[in-house]
Write a structure and sequence with these properties.
About 45% of the residues lie in helices and about 10% in strands. The protein is of the alpha+beta class. Strands 1-2-4-5-3 form a five-stranded antiparallel beta sheet, sandwiched between helices. It has a five-stranded antiparallel beta sheet with strand order 6-7-9-10-8, with helices on both faces. It has a two-stranded antiparallel ribbon with strand order 11-12.
Length: about 500
């Protein structure tokens, strides 16, 4: 929480008292990366404090040279503070009045300059955070398209977005959250497009976050923002692609950038937002529509294929004529439902192992999974071939889901439907699907219906979900975000 104004400590005019304050309150001379450099300028002290590793050393050296040269070109003066300020050759110099501001700036990588006898200090933003260069995200690859993606640096991420939207109405509000971590969070939106009520709601929710630190960055912010609880379905969408983020900004969405995270939060979102992928928009509308339908088929298979197949196994009389071959052709000692759950858990274990496996060993682990575990499990009678086949198809549908969070939630729903069929047979499937559908309908993300535009039904928007429209044909922004300007065209 912010410190009350009356409790703030003014800048010390005496540099020895200033140093003692930093020793007591910020760990100077105890923590090795907190440094101070003391200069003499016109027979007065000029000290600057910094954190090693968070500052651009080149800028600091250049500013130090300028300060030292004052002794060669200036006479003794009572206006040393103004002379020093004029020699801080940087585009971002901010005067401050309190020690709390100085410490907050230092911990963010800003260098703070103090002049003996002055009750004002200067913050110079020479931050240079360690990090990687923008590159294509592993989870959102496209055949054709940009290869840059968000990184763990907030400044770089906002710059990648602004490079795509050079609009004077694009806003990036900055907030700081976390009593100890002091994590920078930026709210991005287009001023004359985004719903002001949505922006205010998100701003108030973020300002209300009261926590020591946001070490898990965007995920922690999401849990405070949407209060998801144990609902497995994602209520916000993540993206690491700058082009996707820019597209949603133009549609009227509000984005949340969290420093130290390469993922940007898109709000509000529906179930169908999690089924979109950039690849659809990098192909022609016809090909993009085909890709989208294939993905929808995969998602449906990941949800309903196994429960439906298992129902046919339990009651082969339900099979239409000509499909009597569906079902296990050989007897096993292990019930089919047990095989299905064992296979599901096994695939989840392989997925977790793949995440933790070093890249050079990933191929070897794939061979182990396919050749050793899968085939030998069939040979010894642990699984029937049909179980492996249908579990594999359902797993492929899971991996075809663009949103990782949605794919895991769908897997839990699939296991729920399997258990319902195993216990109640046909009524179990019917009731299970009904309960699942009612549950999804009842979900709201920031007061946004989760199944829009299916429920409530919006024919024009639903048609755009089914068919990938060409860009010239998409002239209206989604009404679900309640944009101030509903037409995708320049204002007069």
């Amino acid at each position: 929480m912010p410190v009350a104004e009356e409790n703030k400590t003014p800048i010390y005019k005496d540099l020895d008292e200033l140093e003692q304050y930093f020793i007591k309150n910020a760990g100077l001379k105890t923590t090795f990366d907190f440094g101070v450099r003391k200069l003499k300028v016109l027979k007065k002290g000029v000290h600057f404090y910094y954190i090693n590793g968070l500052c651009d050393t080149g800028f600091i050296m250049e500013i130090s040279e300028q300060l030292v040269e004052i002794n060669d070109h200036e006479k003794l003066s009572t206006h040393l503070k103004e002379i020093v300020e004029n020699r801080l050759i940087h585009q971002s110099v901010t005067p401050i009045k309190t020690m709390e501001e100085a410490i907050d700036g230092l911990l963010n990588g800003i260098v703070v300059y103090f002049v003996e006898g002055s009750d004002e200090a200067f913050m110079v933003d020479v931050r240079s955070y360690p990090g990687r260069t923008p590159q294509e995200p592993d989870t959102e690859k496209v055949v054709r398209g940009s290869r840059d993606g968000f990184v763990e640096n907030l400044i770089v991420n906002t710059a990648l977005t602004r490079r795509r939207i050079k609009d004077k109405r694009l806003r990036f509000e900055i907030l700081q959250v976390g009593e100890r971590s002091k994590t920078d969070i930026s709210i991005g939106y287009i001023d004359d497009v985004a719903n002001p009520g949505l922006v205010d709601t998100i701003r108030k929710e973020i300002e209300a976050i009261d926590i020591d630190g946001l070490t898990m960055a965007d995920k922690s912010v999401e849990e405070f923002l949407v209060k998801q609880g144990y609902n497995p379905y994602p209520l916000v969408r993540y993206t690491e692609r700058a082009d996707i983020a820019a597209t949603h900004l133009l549609e009227g969405h509000v984005l949340i950038y969290v420093d130290t995270s390469p993922s940007v939060i898109i709000t509000p979102t529906t179930y169908f937002h999690h089924l979109q992928h950039a690849e659809e928009y990098r192909q022609s509308p016809a090909v993009g529509t085909f890709v989208r339908w294939s993905r929808f088929l995969g998602v449906l298979a990941s949800l309903f294929l196994l429960p439906l197949w298992y129902l046919f196994v339990l009651d082969p009389a339900l099979l239409p004529k000509g499909l009597e071959f569906i079902g296990p052709n050989e007897e096993t000692n292990i019930p089919v439902i047990a095989q299905l759950f064992m296979a599901e858990i096994g695939i989840e274990m392989f997925r977790i192992a793949a995440i933790h496996t070093p890249t050079p060993l990933a191929t070897a682990m794939g061979l182990i999974a396919a050749a050793l575990v899968g085939q030998i499990a069939i040979d010894v009678g642990l699984f029937t071939p049909e179980v492996i086949l249908y579990v594999a198809v359902a797993a492929i549908g899971t991996f075809a889901t663009p949103s990782y969070e949605l794919s895991v939630a769908n897997k839990l729903a699939r296991l729920f439907l399997l258990a319902a069929v195993a216990i109640f047979y046909i009524p179990g499937l019917i009731v299970g699907c009904t309960v699942f559908f009612i549950y999804i309908v009842g979900i709201k993300s920031l007061n946004t219906p989760y199944l829009w535009p299916l429920l409530p039904f919006n024919p024009r928007a639903f048609l755009q979900i089914i068919i990938r429209r060409s860009v010239p044909g998409s002239k209206i922004r989604p009404s679900i975000v309640q944009p101030r300007n509903k037409f995708k065209q320049p204002s007069s």
